[in-house]
Records
---
Amino acid sequence: MLKENNEDKVLLIYGATGYTGRLICQEAARRGLTFEIAGRNPHEVAALAKELNVPYHVFSVDDEFGWSKSLLGKTTLLNVAGPFSETAEQAMNACIKYKVHYTDITAEVGIYRLAESKDEAAKNAGIMLLSGAGLFVSYDPLVLHTAKRVADPVALRVGFKYSGGFTPGSVASSANIINAGLLVRRDGELVQLNEALPRAFDFGSGPEDCLPTPLGALSFPINRQELKT
């Protein structure tokens, strides 16, 4: 069992040696956070730990002993090891078992729904399961905030443009997003379309065609009453 009242809040970053993981670790170090790193490649994890002067753990997501040892004394796990279809469930189960908050940075709809399916277990453990921490957990609240600033909103069109590159993990995660199909919310229900036409958005350089993409926030229906409060 982990200490229930751990005054020293310690973050564990799993998947630390990937492209995004390294950026996150470097930022955590810059901010002076207390954290440890973990991953599957012993040489890369050890080298990064030495560079950042932090403790480290080497284990695969299926290694129960690895989770039990690395999560001991931790407050939160940040899972940045994509594709998350291969890591999220094992990590969530470990966090529930050892009473550690879980976060990740996925946009995969299936992982949001996985977290939702474990809601009761997470509540019983007294922890939070948060997928899409960062960008993907923020854009829907931004949409709601915008809608609430308009009297009696009727419709709101939102476009999202990604201009960066793709890492191997991002490519694999993107495949899972695409394979989920064309999903939309209609009257609170998740509906799969057979086809959908692109829509034009102007991001500052003229209209650009945008294709519908089923990002993780689709997993959570918007209560229309919330727009009026």
---
Amino acid sequence: MNIADLRKEYLSQGLRRKDLKPDPFEQFELWFQQACQAELLEPNAMILATASATAAPSTRTVLLKYFDREGFVFFTNYESKKARQIQENPQVSLLFLWLPLERQVQIIGTAVKISTAETLKYFATRPRGNQIGAWCSQQSSVISSRQMLEMKFEEIARKFQNREIPLPSFWGGYRVIPHGFEFWQGRPNRLHDRFFYSRQEDGSWEIQRLSP
């Protein structure tokens, strides 16, 4: 198999400057709604890139749980690798890849912890099994076996049997506050459309077309 021969020609009609909304949050909401309407698998899946204080990079896929004009929120264990890196260096990027629509969106911003009250509001909506999972997983730590993880799950399930599961103190959310958005639309001959929104000092957004 020759990997170099793997290619797909993008046939989209493209993305024009005049079709863009002046506000990147509105443009993202439009594209996100279209991704959901297309019934893509996990349209809220996003690649989160972080870096340590020494600039060692790390990426992983997380799920966007909600967004508004303040930013984009995801949840994790505050003792995980991603959380440790965010504590050292809060500058992060998010990448949404919607290949069936020949689109991707990159968001560059600063990650900050959300309040406990906001985390609790979301935690209460999680399925009970997911709530238990938050308690039993020491995210990113080495474990001896799958069996040990499942035994821990059963132990926590018994501990909170017939009662409300409390919010773990080591689990919560981050909000990524954007200062840049890039909207990418595939085009034929690799002449893709790319537009970058950058936040200005007065809070407005400047839009520039980037070379593919």
